Amino acid sequence: MRITVIGAGAWGTALAVAAAQAGRDVLLWARDAAQAEAMARARVNARYLPEVTLPPALRVAGGEPAGLQVALSGTDLVVIGTPMAALRPWLAWLAQALPACGRAEVPVVWLCKGFERAQPDAEYGLLGHEVAQQVAPALRVGVFSGPSFAREVAQGLPTALVAASAEPAVRAALVAAFHGPALRVYANDDMIGVEVGGAVKNVLAIATGLCDGLRLGHNARAALITRGLAEMTRLGVALGARAETFMGLTGLGDLVLTATGDLSRNRQVGLRLAEGLGAEAAVHTLGHVAEGVYSARTVAQRARRLGVDMPITEAVVSLLDGALDARGAVERLMGRDPKAE
Ligand SMILES: NC(=O)c1ccc[n+]([C@@H]2O[C@H](COP(=O)([O-])OP(=O)(O)OC[C@H]3O[C@@H](n4cnc5c(N)ncnc54)[C@H](O)[C@@H]3O)[C@@H](O)[C@H]2O)c1
Ligand SMILES: O=P(O)(O)OC[C@H](O)CO
């Protein structure tokens, strides 16, 4: 099976490594040709995943999208491993490029977890499947998600992921590409639920990082995770997801991992906010994308439009906007009126 992974950040690289180690024919495509050349030569992604040696079979190339056209004609699966902000242009490009080389049927999946920032002419930001409906409605698409730190996957540590798509062929392609001794891949047809879980858990991980940074204790952390799961589920159901999806790997599973694991960049943002850093400085010091910072406002905005109550998300937005400080956010959450669970 031939797989093309677009985006050579931590996660695109980790999955490319995992698939190559499992014997698949993998091309990893970096945005920057010079970065690709350096990776191919040194056999390491020094900027984004320095702990892991690239297997000899993994091919690395990069540059302008047009350079990828030839490789596309022989690929069986395209994986977009960029941050959410780059999903739209890549889907739009693939919607032209795949049919142009006679590969219109090839499944295209993405790894990003978030809501896109609102386009200039749009009222609110979109999830990946909504972006695909706009710019690539004829492509066969899906999302690959679940609790997974890039470093652990690249090191071959046991991980379970979810292949989500409305199309059985896309789910089957993801299972064929990645399922193996260290990586279990479960299939799910609830793409909305899987995408909402992946986007909202990042916002909630910022809140939990903040809570732990302020040393508010284990009770508070458990409360945040549980009430966070409730607000994630409310939004997802209002957007058309199935409630049970949020009890699975891409809901509860990814929320627990990201909220409690120190490898999480979103949790690290919360920890830095607790130290008194502003949102911009907190992200800057990470050197990686923290999607929760970009998605939080959209999550709150879409929830408000649907009449869904998301107090933890609202507190994170106020914090990121500088309208509340860390202590003020906690006071606001604890000062809410009593209500039924
Ligand atoms: N790192 C993880 O453990 C992990 C796990 C699961 C999901 N994700 C999700 O995967 C997505 C990518 O995260 P990451 O950790 O790889 O980010 P990262 O910060 O490590 O790297 C981002 C990469 O995207 C590349 N990029 C940015 N714009 C691009 C474009 N237009 N075209 C091609 N490449 C572009 C950058 O050059 C960089 O290589 C995020 O949405 C994240 O939430 C990450
Ligand atoms: O490092 P984070 O916070 O982007 O989280 C990484 C993965 O999404 C965890 O599943």
UniProtKB/TrEMBL annotation:
Which residues participate in sn-glycerol 3-phosphate binding?
113, 146, 148, 201, 254, 264-266
The reply on keyword Lipid metabolism is yes
Q: Which UniProt keywords apply?
A: Cytoplasm, Lipid biosynthesis, Lipid metabolism, NAD, NADP, Nucleotide-binding, Oxidoreductase, Phospholipid biosynthesis, Phospholipid metabolism
Q: What is its EC number?
A: 1.1.1.94
GO terms, biological process: carbohydrate metabolic process; glycerol-3-phosphate biosynthetic process; glycerol-3-phosphate catabolic process; glycerophospholipid metabolic process; phospholipid biosynthetic process
Locate the residues binding substrate: 113, 265-266
Cellular component (GO) terms are: cytosol
Q: In which pathway does it act?
A: Membrane lipid metabolism; glycerophospholipid metabolism
Top EC class of this enzyme: oxidoreductase
GO MF terms on file?
glycerol-3-phosphate dehydrogenase (NAD+) activity; glycerol-3-phosphate dehydrogenase (NADP+) activity; NAD binding
Task: Give the annotated active site.
Answer: 201 (proton acceptor)
Primary subcellular site in the record, as a coarse category: cytoplasm
Q: Which residues bind NADPH?
A: 11, 31, 48, 113, 150, 265, 289, 291
- Transmembrane regions: none
* Pfam families membership: NAD_Gly3P_dh_C, NAD_Gly3P_dh_N
Similarity section: Belongs to the NAD-dependent glycerol-3-phosphate dehydrogenase family.
Role played = Catalyzes the reduction of the glycolytic intermediate dihydroxyacetone phosphate (DHAP) to sn-glycerol 3-phosphate (G3P), the key precursor for phospholipid synthesis.
Q: What is this protein called?
A: Glycerol-3-phosphate dehydrogenase [NAD(P)+]
State the species of origin.
Answer: Tepidimonas sediminis
| Lineage, broadest ranks | Bacteria, Pseudomonadati, Pseudomonadota, Betaproteobacteria, Burkholderiales
